[in-house]
Amino acid sequence: VDRSSLSRGALIVFEGLDRSGKTSQSARLVSFLKEKGVPVEAWRFPDRSTRVGQMISAYLANESQLDDRTIHLLFSANRWEKRVQMESKLRSGTSLVVDRYSYSGVAFSSAKGLDIDWCKAPEVGLIAPDLVLFLDVPPERAAERGGYGTERYEQLEFQKKVAQYYSMLRDPTWEIVDGCLTVEGIEEKLRGLVSECIDTCQKGKPVTNLWP
Ligand code: TMP
């Protein structure tokens, strides 16, 4: 028996508007899994630690200006530079909980007016998530939450457009979770969904690529 194809980790992605609760829920989920002894790492995109990530970070802070297609490709490159490591982690049995992924890439850039298929193209061949947890919060509610920061994109009208594009990207790997429930209520739902997904991957579900 080729053990290398068995017992792989799961690729679990959080998506949602800015201020939808992704970052705190992903942190809570990762500590829960660690306590249960599940090998897991918390990842996020953009990964601001790389050189590409630093260019993205400067753009988001309005410290640099970039053409819309250029920044789109940088976000994509930032995922590509992590792909090999991502695959080896998954194959060695480590699950990854990732705060934002290709869906953010496509939804945010399409919301600026770029063609959706053009936006998807550079994402083709990245690893497909096993589960996408979409924290569903109406843009108005998200905007009320402690206010937006000063980063680019953190504006109500723009977030409304992003929400529309997210809804076009939904596929069967998505679970829509009501992000207006209590923190504990959301956490409970996520735990159930994730445990099931990790089981399926352990049983040898193949690793596939975007778009499914
Ligand atoms: P963050 O707040 O989760 O660090 O994300 C920073 C911003 O970048 C957020 O407004 C969403 C946006 N974004 C994109 O436009 N394209 C992408 O590919 C990703 C990952 C994020």
TrEMBL record:
Q: Organism classification, top ranks? A: Eukaryota, Viridiplantae, Streptophyta, Embryophyta, Tracheophyta
Domain Thymidylate kinase-like, first and last residues per copy: 14-188
Q: Would I find Repeat among this entry's keywords?
A: no
One of this protein's Pfam families, by short name?
A: Thymidylate_kin
Protein name per UniProt: Thymidylate kinase
A GO term from the CC aspect: nucleus
Q: Which GO terms describe its biological process?
A: dTDP biosynthetic process; dTTP biosynthetic process; dUDP biosynthetic process
- Membrane spanning stretches: none
